[in-house]
Amino acid sequence: MTGPEQRTDTDRATDAPQQSGARHRGSPARDSIVPEADFESYYGRPIVKPAPWEHDIAYYMFTGGVAAGSAILGAGADLTERPGLRRTSRLGSAVALVLSMFFLIKDLGKPSRFLNMLRVAKPTSPMSVGTWLLSLHGPFSALASAAEVAGLLPSRWQRGPIGLALRLGRPAGIAAAVTAPPVAAYTAVLLSDTATPAWHSAHEELPFVFCGSAAAASGGLGLIGAPLGESGPARAFAIGGAVVDLVAEHRMEQSMGISAETLHQGSAGRWMQASKGLMVLGATGALLGRRSRAVSIASGAALMAGSLCTRIGVFEAGIASANDPKYVVVPQRERVARGEAVRHSG
Amino acid sequence: MSLRDSLFNWDGMANSLFGPLDPAPNAGYDDPPARKGFFTDTSICIGCKACEVACKEWNDVPENVFAMLGTSYDNSHSLNANQWRHVAFIEKPAKATPPVDLGMPTLGAAPNDVPEEEKPDFQWLMSSDVCKHCTHAACLDVCPTGSLFRSEFGTVVVQDDICNGCGYCVAACPYGVIDRRRGPDGDPSVGIAQKCTLCYDRLTDGQRPACAQACPTESILFGDVEELRRTANDRVARLHEQGVMDARLYGNDPDDGVGGTGAFFLLLDEPEVYGLPPDPVVTTKDLPTMYRRAGAAALALLAGAAVSFVGRRP
Q1: Which of A187, A300, B126, B218 could make an SS bond with A223 (beta carbons 3.0 to 4.6 A apart)?
Q2: Strand residue runs (E) in B142-234
Q3: What architecture (CATH level 2) is domain B19-95+121-284?
Q4: Percent residues over pLDDT 90 in chain A
Q5: What is the distance in angstroms between the Cα of B207 and the nearest Cα belonging to chain A?
Q6: Per-residue pLDDT, B98
Q7: Residue B64's pLDDT is what?
Q8: Is residue B170 within 8 angstroms of chain A, CB to CB?
Q9: Is A160's pLDDT higher than 90?
Q10: Does A335 touch chain B (CB under 8 A)?
Q11: Is pLDDT above 50 for A15?
């Protein structure tokens, strides 16, 4: 490798503003008919900054999706007298919510920083909206799972506050189900409302990808925990969710423009590949294996893993798109060249 | 605006999210002073870094995470929490166009008596970059704690004692300005978002920001944004008259994707050559669409669950 000290100023001057060619790492675009993007940059350094987040945020979105989907399934199971599915969903929802809060707070650093976000309510900040949504949904979910635990206790203990929790289980579960969908959907807005090219350009379809993913994962959890006789709705929810996830993800790639590349490259590409494979496998298994407990459990696990892979893949694609100035410059240049420079038209 | 309006009336909010407006009155200040900003004329920047140093000294910004980058004379890398002013050094091949002999009479030394082989084969572009203090500031809009606020001067300031370090502003800024402080160890604000305050403390005291005060060539001008825009237009017109046809303004247009910036620039090449986005758009412009799509997806999730239960008996 030639070190910078061995190159002349003229070399540097010649190649400095044209950094695009060298930055393609094992991309499928190299063999495709799409020409290599030609653009100028400042020594190839990033223009926008990648979100300073770790994988915790991807885990947070996954567990939040499981919590939300399971809260809905739990209420449905409660209303249709499916105790096994209800228990799995309510407890799974509460555990996932606790894990979700754990990952959020781990990323923030300390619990007081979550409380600090409750000092304002800002509709222009999806993170503020999400904080309030979680604060609204959380207590109902907790109460519904408390009722579930209370139901497992000996009947002579089911008096006083425990008895009250038992009686409040159904209304709390319904309230949790009604407040759950925004919890699953808002994380897409959270990512899209940034200057990160891959996330912002996905803003039309990402909510559907994430809600589909949440349904697949929570339905998958239902398949793992509920007896075969009760798992019908979870099975339908999971298969439907997987289909929506796959279809919305496909449409998203069509509308994202050049930054869709980041969903196919590097580790983000591997996560997305794994996600698609697991979703297809899990959905097929769930569809065909309805008489086998073992196949159902394996399919549920595959769907949950697929959902997790989707979140990590989308997360990593965004980080990769922020790190390469190409994904900032080229779409904006192309838009201006088409005569669509963004101007307020009064 | 009532709570109900602010939560549900997105059409009413659309103007707060996109389009030209005076930010301080929009943020609720009654009778604020004129909007303040920077006009950075890079055609007279000499890359002396006095602005970088003055900013660090006045604002007590700790050392940058120092690295010899090996690509240019610019080792301060980029705007970030430890670098509120950043001077870019761009080494470009010299213009290939040969001088044209107009046959004009000259006085004194002829302008073209430098032998061809002694002329440098490259040219320098230098530019002192800074937070743009956007009219529609994405960092400010997405901050979940209210740590970022709009000052009475129309600028955007972080209160580091309220900031959570959640990093949302970092990802939201279309210019890659704001960042979480990475070091040095022991600094109380490590992990907290930091950026140029346009020397809020100096402004409230009637002084110029430190960088503008220190700039020896007056490449950095500070003042009322309206007046600076006039100055900038005059300067571009003069450069065009002198044949510098590459001169252009960046960020001065109140109708652009961020509603115009409080800190804008005269550039001598395309913005991306300086590491600036060519035509940035504030991400919150699409926020009403995002919420509508998320709402539709959320309803679909609930409906999908309902359908899963319909017609099935345990």
Answers
A1: A300
A2: 148-150, 156-158, 179-180, 193-194, 220-224
A3: 2-Layer Sandwich (3.30)
A4: 76
A5: 31
A6: 57
A7: 77
A8: yes
A9: no
A10: yes
A11: no
Nearest to A306 by CA among A249, A228, A254, A255: A249
Size of interface A-B (CB pairs under 8 A): 289
Residues of chain B with pLDDT under 70: 1-15, 65, 95-114, 311-314
DSSP class of residue B167? -
A241/B contact by beta carbon, under 8 A: yes
Strand partners, B129: B86
Inter-chain CB proximity B171 and A49 less than 8 Å: yes
Q: Which of A179, A193, A248, A255 is nearest to A216 (CA)?
A: A248
Sequence-ordered list of residues with C-beta below 8 angstroms from that of A220, at least 6 positions apart, any chain: A234, A238, A282, A286, A299, A300, A301, A302, A303, A304, A307
> Is B233 an interface residue toward A (CB < 8 Å)?
no
**ipTM of the shown complex:** 0.89
pLDDT digits (tens, 9 = 90+) for A72-81: 999 999 999 9
Q: What is the pLDDT of residues A123-137, one digit of tens each?
A: 999 999 999 999 999
Contacts of A124 in chain B (CB under 8 A): 13, 17, 141-142, 284, 287
What is this structure's pTM? 0.89
Domain locations in chain A?
Answer: 55-327
pLDDT at B103: 67
- Tell me whether the omega of the peptide bond preceding residue B25 falls within 30 degrees of 0, making it cis: no
User: Is the CB of A177 less than 8 angstroms away from the CB of B302?
Assistant: yes
Whether the CB-CB separation of B37 and B225 falls below 8 Å is answered with yes
Pick the residue from chain A with its C-alpha nearest to B136: A124
CATH of A55-327, one of 2.30.40.10, 2.60.40.10, 1.20.1630.10, 3.30.540.10: 1.20.1630.10
Pairwise CA distance, residues A282 & A295, whole Å: 9
Residue type for position A78: D
CB contact under 8 A, A193 and B290: yes
Could A343 and B302 be called an inter-chain contact, meaning their C-beta atoms sit closer than 8 Å? no
Q: Which residues of A touch B273 (CB under 8 A)?
A: 17, 40-42
Are the C-beta atoms of residues A66 and A92 closer than 8 Å to each other? yes
* Distance of alpha carbon A87 from alpha carbon A78, whole angstroms: 9
